[in-house]
Amino acid sequence: MALAGTSKVVLGCVAFGIFWVLAVFPTVPFMPVGRTAGSLLGAMLMVLFRVISPEDAYAAIDLPIIGLLFGTMVVSIFLERADMFKYLGNLLSWKSRGSKDLLFRVCIVSAIASALFTNDTCCVVLTEFILKVARQNNLPPQPFLLALATSSNIGSAATPIGNPQNLVIAVESGISFGQFLLGVFPAMIVGVLTNAAILLCYFWKYLSVEKDQEGGQPAGPEVVADDEVTSHRFTPARMSHVSSLNPDDMDCISEPIIRSNSVRSTSANENLRSRSVNSEADIQLAIKSLRASSMSHEMVEVSTVTDRRDEGASSRKFTRTASQQRSVIIEDSPPSPDSNGEKEKEDEVAEKRWRVFVWKTAVYLITLGMLIALLMGLNMSWTAITAALVLLALDFTDAQACLEKVSYSLLIFFCGMFITVDGFNKTGIPNTLWELVEPYSRIDSAKGVALLAVVILILSNVASNVPTVLLLGTRVAASAAAISHDSERKAWLILAWVSTVAGNLTLLGSAANLIVCEQARRAQFFGYNLSFWSHLRFGVPSTIVVTAIGLLIVTSY
C-alpha cells in the first residue's frame, strides 16, 4: 500500500500521535484525561480529519474481541466473588518454607492464574495480599512485586484469554484455543522458571537476611531502596482484623447494655480474674458454660464491679433479677422458646452455608466448562459470553451490581483504539516501514526471527503491545504465509510471545505493571513505591533472556 496524500498522512500522524501520548502517558500535564478519553479523541480526530470515513470507523471495531473481553470480565468477577483468588492467595503462604520458597510460589501461582483469568485481574487481586505477606514476614517487598508483575505477563502469553493482545491474535489468526496453548504453553513454563531463577539470583542476598528476633528488623542492611509510603487512607471495609486492643483505648468504647463497665471476678478461680463482661448476652454465655460443667443450682454472683468512668471511686455489687436466677436452674422441662430460636438460627446459618457452597461449586463448574469448550475449538467470543450469561442467570439476583464492576472504560478504549489504528494504517506509513524491514525479518532464518523480535520488542514498549499487534499482525502473517501455512501460524505465535513478554522491559510496557505499582502504593497499612528504575534494572535482563529462550521453543513447534 502506497503512502496516502500529504495532508492525510500529516493529519493521520497528528491524530495517532495524540492517541499514543495519552495511551502511554495518561496523566500528561497539558491533557490529563486518561487512556480511554485519549483513544476516543484519537478516533474522533481520524474521522474529523477525514483520514477514515464514519462507516469505516464503525467497521474497524472488532466486535468478537469486545465480546470476548466482556465475557471474560464477567467470569472473572464471579470467580472473585466465589473466593477463587482468596484461595490462590492462601496457597502462597500455606506451609511456606521461607522467603525463597514464597518467591517461587508467587511466580508459579501468578503465572497460572494469569493464563486462566487475565494478567490484569490477577495483579489487581493478588498485589495487596502479597505485599501484606511480605511485610508481616519482614521481607523486602520489591522482589515479590516484581515476581507478580513479570510472572503474570509471562503466564498470560500461554492462552488467548490471558491478555488483550492475545485475544486480538486469536481472533485475527483463527488459531484455536488448543493450538495456541500447545504452541506457547511450553515456552511459558520455561520462561516462568527462568524468570524465577533470575529473581532468586538477583535478590538472593536480600532474601537470605535473617530476621532480628528481638527487634523484628532485618539484621542486614535495609533492602528497600524505594520511598516507603507512610500515610495510608483508612477504609473500614478493607481494614484488617485487630488481634489485640490497647488497654488505654478501652475508654473510648461506648456503653452497650450494662454501661460498658469492666467486670472483674473475685471468685476463687484465678483464671476468671481478667474476664470482662460487656453485656447481658455475655453473662448468659458464661452461665451456659457453667451449666455444662456442673449440674448444680447455685447462683453465680458477679461482684466488685469498678466503674471506669468514676475512676475507681467506688465499687458496686450486681444482684441478679428473678428471671436471671431462674435461667440458672436446671430442670427437666421442655425447651424454652429461646432454645427453639437458637436452633432455628443455627439451621438458618447451616442452610446459608450450604447455598454458598452450591453457588461456588456452580461458578467453578461453569468456568471449567467454558475452558473445556474453548479447548474443543468452539467460538471463543460466544463461549465466553454464554458462560457469563449463565453465571448471571444462576445468581438469581439483579445483575446490575455485577455488571457495574465490568471495566467498560477498557472496552471503550479498545473501540477507540481500533478506529485510531485503522486510520493510521490508511495513511500507508506502517506498510511503508514494514516493507523496509520485511526482507530481513522473515521467520525462515534465525537472523530474521531475531530482527522481528527486536522490532516487536521496541514497538511494544513505544506504542504499547495491543497497537503493535494491530499494526504488525496481518503484515507479519502475510510475510510468513509466503513461506508456508505452518510458518503463518508460527509467526502469529511469535508475535504473541514477544509482544507479551516485552511488557516486562519497563514499568510502562504493560498495564499489569502499572496495576501492581499503583495497588502497592495505595495498599492499606503496607504501602510500597515500586519505582520505574527499580523495575528497569531487573526488567531488561529478564526480558532479553526469557524472550530468547521462549523463541527457541516457539519456533521449534
Overview of this protein structure:
There is one protein chain. By secondary structure, this protein is an all-alpha fold. Helices cover 64% and strands 1% of the residues. The protein is built from 23 helices and 3 strands. It has helices spanning 6-24, 34-48, 54-60, 63-81, 84-93, 99-117, 119-136, 141-156, 164-173, 177-202, 204-207, 280-293, 322-328, 337-375, 380-394, 400-403, 408-426, 429-437, 446-463, 465-481, 485-501, 511-521, 532-555, and strands at residues 262-263, 305-306, 315-316. The chain has a 3-stranded antiparallel sheet with strand order 1-2-3, with no helix packed on it. Strand 2 and strand 3 form a beta hairpin. Helix 5 (84-93) runs antiparallel to helix 6 and helix 8 (141-156) runs antiparallel to helix 10 (177-202). The protein starts with 5 loop residues before the first helix and ends with a helix.
List keywords for this structure.
557 residues; mainly alpha; three-stranded antiparallel β-sheet; 64% helix; 1% strand; globular; transmembrane; Cit_transptr-like_dom; cell membrane; transmembrane helix; transport
Beta-strand proportion: under 5%
Helix content: 55-70%
Question: What gap, in angstroms, lies between the N and C termini?
Answer: 32 Å
SS-based structural class? mainly alpha
Q: Strands of the biggest beta sheet: in what spatial order?
A: 1-2-3
Number of helices: 23
Sum up the overall morphology in one term.
globular
Number of strands: 3
Biggest β-sheet description = 3 strands, antiparallel
Low-confidence stretches: 210-283, 289-333
Order of helices and strands: HHHHHHHHHHHEHEEHHHHHHHHHHH
Integer average pLDDT:
77
| C-alpha-based Rg, rounded | 31 Å
What is the subunit organization of this protein? single chain
Protein name: Citrate transporter-like domain-containing protein
Organism: Oryza meyeriana var. granulata
Transmembrane segments: 9-28, 59-79, 102-131, 181-204, 362-394, 406-424, 449-472, 492-516, 536-554
Domain Citrate transporter-like: 31-502
